[in-house]
Design a protein that fits this description.
257 residues, Rossmann fold, 47% helix, globular
């Protein structure tokens, strides 16, 4: 599945799922643009290391995904965008009647509206190039719900709907748009939460993982960032040229329940 010569922009990609996706795209030969809201030497060094490891061009571009203007500027600064992976996201947990308005606004902006802005900026580039792939990282929560995550679930359901609409608008072109819906993925952020949860519930690490974090994931195994990245590479391949407007669940059976 060679993606040599293609340029991929991955939002929210200096760690976690986004970085895992960027690595798999680079492994497949794509030039990559990493992104987050910070602008440190470490961010740029990460891109340089990625490029060296896989023999591709890799850059880091700062952009705040809560700003529509910065989302569009990210694509413009990239200069090319054959592959767009909308991954940036944040989370907050609270009952609806206590949910802070500023948290709702931020989650909708970063988790949903950013995908609209980057897609709107990238489509003209893809049309000019005569080829394009848009992969939106949604969530199992884009297909089902849990209490206390109203903004996140509303945003991820919105990402699934946006993916379908984008696919329909590009259906007669060599451009596809799909959403990947991961279950719980073992990222540094998730891993860091385990010790506190162990203390709170007086459980071992294994018990916390199996009975708390993965309670709704039938496989009782975390999804890996490499698996999400590999699914992204597949959706960018010629084998997936007629896969558009759909969701692919990578969730250990969560949404089969």
């Amino acid at each position: 599945m060679s993606l040599k010569g293609k340029t991929a922009v991955i939002t929210g990609s200096n760690s976690g799922i986004g970085l895992g996706v960027a690595r798999e795209l680079a492994r497949a030969g794509a030039n990559v643009v990493l992104n987050s809201f910070t602008d440190t030497d470490a961010d740029h060094a990460l891109a340089a290391e990625l490029g060296k490891e896989f023999g591709v061009t890799a850059r880091y571009i700062k952009a705040d995904m809560s700003s529509g203007a910065e989302c569009r500027a990210l694509i413009e600064q990239a200069g090319a965008c054959d592959i767009l992976v909308n991954n940036a996201g944040i989370q907050h947990v609270s009952p609806i009647d206590e949910f802070p308005t500023e948290k709702w606004d931020a989650i909708i902006a970063i988790n949903l509206s950013s995908s609209f802005h980057t897609t709107a900026a990238a489509l003209p580039m893809m049309r000019k190039a005569g080829w394009g792939r848009i992969v939106n990282i949604a969530s199992a929560h884009g297909l089902t719900a849990s209490p206390f995550k109203s903004a996140y679930i509303a945003a991820k359901h919105g990402v699934v709907g946006l993916s379908k609409t984008t696919a329909l608008e590009t259906a007669e072109e060599p451009i596809t748009c799909n959403a990947i819906c991961p279950g719980y993925v073992l990222t540094p952020l998730v891993d860091a939460q385990i010790p506190d949860t162990m203390r709170e519930y007086k459980m071992t690490r294994e018990e916390v993982v199996r009975n708390v974090l993965l309670a709704r994931q039938p496989s009782k195994e975390f999804v890996t960032v490499e698996q999400v990245g590999g699914t992204t590479v597949f959706l960018c391949s010629d084998a997936a040229a007629q896969i558009t407007g759909t969701t692919i669940s990578v969730d250990g059976g969560w949404t089969a329940l």
